[in-house]
Amino acid sequence: MYGATANAQRSLYRIVFKGSAAVLAVLWMVAVLSGCGGGDGAASSVGESFEEEAASAERYGPLVDDWKAELESDDLSDFERGVLQQAVETGRITQDDYEQAQALYVRCMETSGYDRLVFDKLPNGLYSLSDESQTDDGYFDAMVTCSQGTTSVIEAEYRAQQDNPKRYKDNGIVAVQCLREAGVVDDSYTAAQFNNGLDRLSKTRSSGAAEEDVTPSSAFGFPVNPGDEQTLFCISLGGLNLGGDFNSDE
């Protein structure tokens, strides 16, 4: 990945993605309130169709360049190095590669005493720690330790591949593409509309206004409900994690 936002997101994935949904929601909200929503290339022009936005959008360089850069590190485990070398040759990290990384991570956590962890599988094929998991004050340190050499690098790179294969810098385009494929919005909905909704939410929350003044549904212009995991996942691709309860219009 290239650009400040992309590098920051990669760091977040490596450090906290195995953490609770609540932790992730806070970190994503910090990113939005800091003006990071939309990504490095959020420059969609109002009036353009989604197809025009996508056609003219800035993009990051090929993921294979990232993998080659990772291979220059001396900190990789043999497992990580093998996965990345194969990815450079084939052009992608496979689901099986990621599943193996996850299995190694879980085995390490179980050895560390965390044998009651529950994971939810997301639409992009990745796992997220469920709130049903049993953890304690030592969980975060164990998570960081066990992710080294297992999921730390592989999960971040696999997520980048799965979530944004066309390498758009504008996260709004990635989110709307997901929303369109899920049937949440029609073909007239644009990345500019999504990014405007993201800005409305961030301004409302940063100003301390009551959350009911601007709900996710009213900001984005489509129904957003706490139980709609697919819609919430698509929104997260745009830079906002709405995990937990929030006000909806229904």
Structure description:
By secondary structure, this protein is mainly α. It has helices at residues 4-16, 21-33, 50-56, 63-70, 78-90, 95-111, 139-147, 152-163, 171-181, 191-206, 216-220, 229-237; strands at 119-121, 127-129. Strands 1-2 form a two-stranded antiparallel sheet. A hairpin with a 5-residue loop joins strand 1 (119-121) and strand 2. Helix 6 crosses helix 7 (139-147) and helix 9 packs across helix 10 (191-206). The radius of gyration is 18 Å and the shape is globular. The termini are far apart.
Keywords:
250 residues, mainly alpha, two-stranded antiparallel ribbon, 2 strands, disordered N terminus
Task: Give the structure's gist in a few sentences.
The chain contains twelve helices and two strands. The chain is mainly alpha-helical and about 250 residues long.
